[in-house]
Amino acid sequence: MNYKYISSTSIKKIQKTKSIEYFDRLELLSLILRLNILYSIQKAGSGHLGSSLSAVDIFLCCSEFLKNKTGNFFSSKGHDAPALYNVMTLNQKIDFKKIHLLRKINGLPGHPEVRTKNILFNTGSLGMGISKANGLSYMNYFLKENEKNIVIVGDGELQEGQNWEALMFLQNKKNISPLIIVDQNKIQSDTWVNKVKDYSSLKNKVRSFKINFKEINGHIKKEIYKSIKNHFKKNQGATVILANTIKGSGFSAFESTNFKKNMDFYPYHSGSLSSDLYEKSSVEMVKKIVNFCKKKKITVPHIEIYETKQIKKTNDKMFSLVKVYSEELLTFVKKNKKAIALDADLAKDAGSLEVMQKLPKQFIEFGIAEQDMVSFGSGIAAKNFLPIFHSFSCFLSTRAQEQIFNFCSENRKGIFIGALSGLTPSAPGHSHQMIRDVPLIGSMPNLFMLELFSRKMIKKFFIYQKK
Question: Which residues sit opposite 388 in a β-bridge?
Answer without folding.
Answer: 341, 415
